[in-house]
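Continuing the batch. This is chain 6 of the set; chains 1 through 5 are on the previous pages. Same settings as before, nothing changed between runs. Recording input and output for traceability.
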Amino acid sequence: MKNKKTLLSLKESLFPVFFLIFLLAYNVYVYGDSAMNGSNQFILLLGAAIAIIIGLKKGVLFKYMIDTVSSNLKSITGAILILLFVGALSGTWLISGIIPSMIYYGLQVLHPSVFLPSCLIICAIISVATGSSWTTSATVGIALIGIGRAIDIPVGMVAGAIISGAYFGDKLSPLSDTTNLAPAVSGSDLFTHIKYLTITTVPTVIVTLFILSIINFFTISSGPTDHQSILNTISNTFYISPLLFIVPLLIVFMIFKKTPPLIALFIGTILGGLFAVIFQSSLINQISGNSEISFATAYEVVLNSITIETSIDSGDPVLNKLFNSGGMKGMLNTIWLVICAMVFGGIMEAIGALQKISSSLLELGKSTFSIFASTVGSCLAINLTASDQYLSIVIPGKMFSQAYKDKELAPENLSRTLEDSGTVTSVLIPWNTCGAYQSGILGVSVADYFVYAIFNWLSPFTTLLIAAFNIKIKKLKNRA
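Output for chain 6:
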């Protein structure tokens, strides 16, 4: 049976969005930080239900809507598996002493007076090398959050610096999927896109570094610098050695060599469990309550660290918060949120609401600046409604491609704007897959890190500023 849908008006297309935003705002007001534990997920399904009702009234077949949702859910299978393995990896990296070793040595190297800019620079380097903001947060990001907690720096600040650096690398790395996707849908090529992207990205990261340095100077530099008691507690609880860095370095190398993230995370998880048995036998005995290690006790402790919550008592209340991992189970709330968000996005796509919102923004593009502004607005709208950064690149990229050609604008203008407003803002939306992921991995709510993720919210303004002053806006070459 063929789908016979009629076009939605802009008002009809936006109604589920406003309904969703209103209910999410009220839900967060009622539940606070615990809104992620299930109520936000149901609100997303309520938003989807409103969109379904509108779709049915417009003649969209229910089966077609469900098929679109199924297609969307299929597209995030890899992301869900990555989330599960990140939870598993954090568990084995805790009991193996890898994360405690990162914290131990980091406390000696990263002084509080330069901590935030150091976080940005470290994460930027790792992300450029790996091409993945997700991997950066799941490895060095977790360690930096731990160090920040240990020296009493607000976790929102630390997470904002981590995310800023991670997304800087994600935008510029030729290994990044979004960096390859943006020029592909706009008609540019990869290295022209990266070169043109530096016009907005480099100034934005410099401003971000400057602001984080000021924040650091006025709020953190007077913080505690004597960490000897903390260092002693860590070394008494775990076997600390540079040898433990073999695993994270190997994983970073594998991803640099374009090993699929799932394979790299799986190997990292297994090696973490193996290193726990080799280097942390006394800790395994402490967790299991046995005096001697055996295959059965080691198996149980390692498998529990992979699948369920693991807590290690160090005797220090501050460190006890660090030495805690939820394993795969700890990722389920995030996965639940991602699935519900994709249900809402799938229904909105099926009824034609996403396309209507984008096309309405496209109609605003009469001047050069307005077409850039319309692209930014479209990417933000898709990130808010479809809850996926890839759709925020693909849909506006397809919608605006011809419009940029009509304005004699080179395709790299479009590809750069897609990244400046689609890729980086996804992490600022709690129900977006990226926002849910980063919040779950770092253990910090989007509301807490939003202000400090300066690079991410500043990027769209930078691209609009560049367009407004007509700075290096590349034109198409004259055709023969």
